[in-house]
Description:
alpha+beta
Amino acid sequence: MVRKAGQYLVKHYNTWCVEMTIPKELRHHFPHDAEGKKNLRGRYKTKLARSLNTGDFAKAEVEKLQWVYKWKKLFQMYR
């Protein structure tokens, strides 16, 4: 079960995750792993995601900020 709440936050069962869509013009910088699933080899990621390892929404809201900052900084670097 997936539930969205707040910007960039998604709840997978009892754990909050942070997810951010990769802009189309930057996706070529984010290929899937060569050792990963066969159907994804040679394709590019469409989003970045990270588990926050917490079920508490308030704590997740605070912890997501570091990942959003890192990813936005990474996108800026690639532009």
